[in-house]
Specification:
With 386 residues, the chain is of the alpha/beta class. It folds into 2 domains: 152 residues, VC0802-like (2-Layer Sandwich); 199 residues, Vaccinia Virus protein VP39 (Rossmann fold). 29% of the residues lie in helices and 23% in strands. The chain is built from 10 helices and 14 strands. Helix 2 crosses helix 7, helix 3 packs parallel to helix 4 and helix 5 packs across helix 6. It is elongated. The relative contact order is 0.12.
């Protein structure tokens, strides 16, 4: 099968998490840059990456790269790429998105227009035609220009990979599913440990944790653009990877995952989403104020995305909220807390300096992932006192 260079974009600051995921799937990393991880793989890898990766935003097939300082350079470089190897005669092709950083070419609309013309010119030469109906399958193109170096790729995914398909209803400021998964992966949490999200909203963090504990592949129940590219990737490739993913689901896993929110309507939405994700029985949702947070067991995890302006609307309320978070955490014996927020001085109100602080870009918003480490639990044989 043909080998491709595949590109997986992700949230800025989470490249190491995605790199580990790809390596664990068995693929060789070729490059790691800000917000992107590249790796080698065949058509089977395209299926597996789309279906199994939890922290990527999409999977792209690299068509080529070149240097461009002018629109003429961009036109000629695009026309020189082997489009006929990917796009059939009746394919619908366009530049879905163009981004430019520190480059002479910076207008997305101009970049998209010129590249489309260049692609048409190359298709004319390849197929000996002057006009294309473009009434076939979609072949969206994405372009990154960094310091005048142009990278051109086909988008195999379609809707972003964070859209697992289970979240039909959501809160006002939901955390993306792939970001939630990455945050969990940045902690030592495993399915045999308690996990509580006291600001669960529509349930994303508990649901992602439950899917990990049950080894449910995040993309197993959704569609991808490249499923229609049967000349590149066969239906059997997709069917085999999906069947493999379903066989690896652990149906009898025992977990203690809890999601709380002050809004009873959010709790109902979270239950509906958990049901759609197939993990409803694995999570206990309850309407509960953060001021009432307590737990009789030790060595648990709080992993949460509390309000930091967007959902409350009044920043004056935030100090009191974060002081309450700090007080309730302090009352939990031996627990760890992992908290993502856009509130820069959150530690001040929580009343404790984080053991680690990681900057993560949630879109264009800089956020802080504060990590408060509790002690490690004793070995299993010594836990009778819990």
């Amino acid at each position: 099968m043909v080998k491709y260079e595949l590109i997986a974009p992700c949230h800025f600051g989470l490249e190491s998490v995605l790199k580990k995921e790809i390596t664990d799937l068995g693929y060789d990393i070729t490059e790691v840059t800000d917000g992107r991880v590249s790796f080698e793989g065949d058509g089977d890898a395209v299926c597996r990456a789309n279906i199994c990766l939890r922290t990527a935003e999409r999977i792209l097939i690299k068509v080529g790269s070149f240097h461009a300082e002018s629109f003429e350079d961009l036109f000629q470089g695009t026309r020189a790429l082997p489009w006929e190897e990917y796009i059939p005669e009746n394919g619908k092709f366009w530049v879905k998105k163009a981004s430019s950083v520190k480059s002479r070419l910076f207008s997305p609309s101009d970049i998209q227009s010129i590249m489309k013309k260049a692609m048409v010119e190359k298709m004319k030469l390849s197929y000996h035609k002057e006009w294309f109906s473009e009434d076939g399958q979609d072949y969206p193109v994405r372009v990154f220009i960094l310091k005048d170096e142009v990278t051109v790729a086909l988008d195999t995914t379609g809707d972003s990979l964070h859209k697992r398909g289970y979240r039909r209803l959501e809160s006002k400021a939901p955390i993306a599913e792939n970001l939630a998964a990455a945050l969990i992966m940045l902690t030592p949490w495993h399915g045999d440990r308690i996990l509580v999200d006291p600001f669960c909203g529509s349930g994303t963090i508990p649901i992602e944790a439950a899917m990990m504990a049950a080894n449910i592949a995040p993309g197993v129940n959704r569609h991808f653009t490249a499923e229609n590219w049967t000349h590149l990737i066969t239906k059997k490739n997709w069917d085999d990877v999906r069947e493999e993913a379903r066989e690896e689901i652990v149906t009898d896993v025992q977990v203690d995952i809890q999601g709380y929110d002050i809004d009873p309507e959010m709790i109902e939405i979270a239950r509906i989403n958990a049901r759609k994700a197939g993990v409803e029985q694995m999570i206990h949702f309850q309407a509960r104020d953060i001021a009432d947070l307590s737990h009789r067991k030790k060595y648990g995890f709080i992993i949460t995305n509390p309000p930091y302006g967007e959902r409350i609307g009044e920043s004056a309320q935030l100090p009191a909220l974060y002081r309450t978070i700090g007080e309730r955490y302090a009352a939990l014996d031996s627990w760890s807390m992992y908290l993502i927020t856009g509130l820069e001085n959150a530690e001040k109100y929580i009343g404790r300096k984080a053991d680690r602080n990681r900057k993560i870009y949630n879109g264009m918003l800089k956020t802080y992932f504060y990590q408060f480490m509790g002690p490690k639990p004793p070995r299993r044989g010594d836990r009778n006192h819990e």
